[in-house]
Amino acid sequence: MRIACVQMDIVFGEPEANFNQVSAYLAEASRKGADTIVLPEMWNTGYALTKLETLADGSNRTVNFLKEFAKANQVNIVGGSVSIIKDSGFYNTMFVVNKDGELVSEYDKAHRFGLMDEHIHLEEGNGLGTFELEGVTCGGVICYDIRFPEWIRAQALNGAKVIFVPAEWPEARIDHWKILLQARAIENQCFIVAVNRVGSDPKNAFGGSSMVIAPWGELRLDMAMQEGIGYADIDLDEVEEVRKRIPVFTDRREALYSSFQPSKKQ
Ligand SMILES: O=C(O)CCC(=O)C(=O)O
Predict the structure, then answer these.
(1) Tens-place pLDDT, residues 181-228
(2) Which atom of ligand 1 lies closest to the CA of 169?
(3) Using one digit for the tens of pLDDT, what is the confidence trace for 28-69?
(4) Is 183 exposed, middle or buried (0-12, 13-18, 19+ CB in 10 A)?
(5) Of all protein residues, whose CA lies closest to atom 1 belonging to ligand 1?
(6) What is the crossing angle of helices 15-31 and 61-73, to 10°?
(7) Residue 186: closest CA among 246, 235, 138
(8) Quick check: is 203 catalytic?
(9) How far apart are CA 165 and CA 41, in angstroms?
């Protein structure tokens, strides 16, 4: 599977400019033979959370745009995430479409990041976010979600062999990003494809470092601060090889772990 990671700057609060940028990146990546193109988090609006009433997608625009491109160009798109409006409020949502232009996943970010006011402006998701792409079970989580190892583990236990992570991760904590992602790949013995943005918004400078990490933990792509598209070819047989070499999933002791769950506070 040839993966293309779109490490772009995002124009704060300007969906039109961002749709134009993403169109150009999708066209370039598909021209260069990508099977699966991955976008960053909240690429339509950036973190313009106080303006979501007017800016967030309430019309299926993003889904239709991704579906049409995917079908016309026979490419899978892990559509990063976008801000959208549903009946119950605003969400930070990842759409994934396959080469036939079918929507195979709609995942709402499960853990809201307080340092960036998500808990004030966004609703939290409750779905797991695993999906099939060309017969391979994949997972998707968004940015802050990677700080919750049990959440990524739940995807791996549900069969995910490749986990996609779109993000807007600040440069100030980019060491955490790199270490957490590598740990998530090693402990779950799966590929991690993580796409962060570059550039800045009024509150944060972002740290790039989009990466493809193999199930043994090696970096197959590290984009550092380079703006543009990075490519990596991944061989899914590696997942089985690593899982055979060190059979973590066979050796897990679920009953033991649950016997030590802390009792609820009164
Ligand atoms: O966990 C972090 O340090 C960054 C998380 C974040 O930026 C986000 O979830 O948008």
Answers:
(1) 999 999 999 999 999 999 999 999 999 999 999 999 999 999 999 999
(2) 7
(3) 999 999 999 999 999 999 999 999 999 999 999 999 999 999
(4) middle
(5) 144
(6) 20
(7) 246
(8) no
(9) 8
Q: Atom 5 in ligand 1: which residue has the minimum CA distance?
A: 144
| Rounded Cα distance, 107 and 119, in Å | 17
CA distance 219 to 75: 24
Say whether pLDDT at 266 is over 60.
no
> What is the pTM for the complete model shown?
0.97
Whether 13 shows a pLDDT value over 60: the answer reads yes
134 is catalytic: no
169 pocket-lining for ligand 1 (C-beta < 6 Å): yes
Point out the catalytic residue in the list 67, 109, 161, 178: 109
**90 ligand 1 Cβ < 6 A:** no
**How far is 102 from 63, CA to CA, in rounded Å?**
10
Closest residue by Cα to residue 209 from 233, 230, 240: 230
Nearest CA residue ID for atom 9, ligand 1:
144
Structural domains in the chain plus CATH codes: 2-259 (3.60.110.10)
Please say if 41 is a catalytic residue: yes
Atom 2 of ligand 1, residue of closest alpha carbon: 144
